[in-house]
Amino acid sequence: MSQPFSARAMLLAALALVVSIVVGAPHSALVVITIVTLVVMVSLLAQASLRKLLLRSLVVLPIAGGMALFAPLRFLGRTAEAVGSAVAPEIAGAAGLAETVQSTGMLGSLANAYLAGAPLMVQMILTSWLCVLVLLTLATVCPVSDLLFALEQLRLPRALTMLLGFIHRYVDLLRSELSSLSRAMVLRAPTLSRRRQVLLYGNLAGSLVIRTQDRAERVSAAMLARGFTGVLPRRHQQRLVVADITLLVIAVVFSLAITWV
Amino acid sequence: MHIPDGMLDTKTFTTLWAGGASGIGYASWWIRRHFDSTKMVLMAVMASLIFALQMLNFPVALGTSGHFAGGAAAAIILGFWPASVVMTAVLIIQALLFGDGGITTLGANIVNLALCAPSVGILVYQLGCRLHSVPAARIISSFLAAFSSVVAAAALVAIELWASGRAPFYPVMTAMVSWHALIGIGEGVITASLIAFLLKVRPSLLGITQPVDKTSVGKLEAEPTSSPGAQVKPTSSTSSAQAGSQQGVVVVFAVIALAAAGLSFLASQHPDGLEYVYFETGIGSFFEELGFSKLAPLADYLIPGVANETLSVVGAGIIGVVLTGSLLFIVSTLIVRSRVK
């Protein structure tokens, strides 16, 4: 997988795009298609697996869907005029469902509220999905170390970038340790109920805390021996090249277009 | 409980970004000031652990499951400010690399999960430990701490969704709190057994120097240790008081800035009493014609040149607070200096 642009340029472009997607919602089909096309182009340029990217982006649907489920409840018990004025004109007009909101008993009212609020619900989920798609493209295309360096260049506090670096370095190690501990727990006590297992999770977490503490002390001693002074060594500043500036200009123009046009 | 992008409107997410950024900015400064390089490494490796522990899934109800969040556990083991930074780092990684939680909503997620959950957790835990310092009380306190931290964060999410106009207040609050109360029980059980295990095996991690003896009621004493959560005590009472007052000033400013940015949206569009009288008597139109109002740099609480009204109002609110605070700081410093002389 190759990296067509510098991490800093891609991070800034992704952030601009995400903010404009959120601020500029609701979006027309044209905007949605353009964003997806942009994502496809970048992932093709970086030779990333598009199928994997799309599948990973679906992770947001249950969470966004769960939260968006509440949105139509705003229309509960409202008149058709009130619903029409409460939602964005393009949503209400496109759906043409606002007039269906009438008080027809509790269940009927609920069903009507969901009918009237369905376009809004879809917009919320779509906005979330587009943002996740953009961010996952960034994560797929940029190596994590470059991304962390870009965050540092964007003046994220040093303590935070150091933590991010350590999480990146040790999380897989600790995850595999946690998996092996849980596997051992299940193998040693195969007849335990799920409830009993939850109680044992505390012991498992506790033993992992102690192992991690010991490991951290060893890591700390080793780092101090190598001359660590509390600040991770920095790489040289990378200059933005023509390709990066082009990407940034396209991202900014596109973001402004999404937000205000 | 991570809010994805698109769930909050502009005024809410910008307000929460301001609050989250100021809180975490202060927490980072606190860590640089109080932690040496050894403790930084210990905390950093423990941060990876909190991330890994979020893999622990437990059954909730109706075939669904919840996962360990770890806000309260992090605060109990590491202390409040380190726990906030650790949770923020975890949230950034989750948002940037895993698509779990958004970028525009990162401020909200920081406020909910990195500031609110650990603060509620540590408050409840310390309150419980102050009432009784026996191990059983610590374990029960840790259960209550984890439970209340999850419920408080869920309630905050509900308030944010309501403030964004995305959901009506009562349904979303009821659903979020009741569902997360169930998750909170799981979180509480795991946290309590984690604390029980640490009390038994390595109490020093919880700031307790002596091995726990269940018969030694009231003998446990918290002392600074080499654990990452152990806070370095200032050497003299003067430096302690100074550090305390500086912390207080920063926290008060952060809260005021957050409130100013958020409350600016609740301001009425109608003129106040004096303005009303001015315009009723014609004095207002006379001054308006003279163009005095246009001379103000932030007329009508808007930043000139910013087209987005929401951003403009938030920005003007924050600029106002910063300017007022700076002026107050300069005046109070001058007064203090003149008294010293």
The assigned CATH architecture of the largest domain in chain B is Orthogonal Bundle
Mean pLDDT of chain A: 77
> What would you call the structural class of chain B?
mainly alpha
Which structural category do the helix and sheet elements of chain A fall into? mainly alpha
Count of extended strands of chain A: 0
The helical percent of chain A reads: over 70%
Identify the overall geometry of chain A. flat
| H-E string of chain A | HHHHHHHHHHH
The N- and C-terminal alpha carbons of chain A lie at a distance of 35 Å
Q: Supply Rg of chain A.
A: 25 Å
Number of strands of chain B: 2
What does this structure look like?
Chain A is mainly α. Chain A folds into two domains: 7-142 and 239-260, no CATH class; 158-225, no CATH class. Chain A has helices at residues 7-23, 29-45, 50-57, 60-68, 80-86, 89-95, 105-141, 144-153, 158-188, 194-225, 242-260. In chain A, helix 1 packs across helix 8 (144-153) and helix 1 (7-23) packs parallel to helix 11 (242-260). The two termini of chain A are 35 Å apart. The model of chain A has no long low-confidence stretch (mean pLDDT 77). Chain B is mainly alpha-helical and 341 residues long. Chain B has two domains: 10-209 and 238-269, Arp2/3 complex 21 kDa subunit ARPC3; 303-341. Chain B contains twelve helices and two strands, in the order ααββαααααααααα. Chain B has helices spanning 10-34, 37-53, 71-78, 80-98, 106-131, 135-163, 169-201, 237-263, 273-281, 283-290, 292-295, 309-340; strands spanning 57-59, 65-67. Chain B has a two-stranded antiparallel ribbon. In chain B, a hairpin with a 5-residue loop joins strand 1 and strand 2. Chain B is globular and about 75 Å long. The N and C termini of chain B lie far apart (55 Å). The chains are: A mainly alpha (261), B mainly alpha (341).
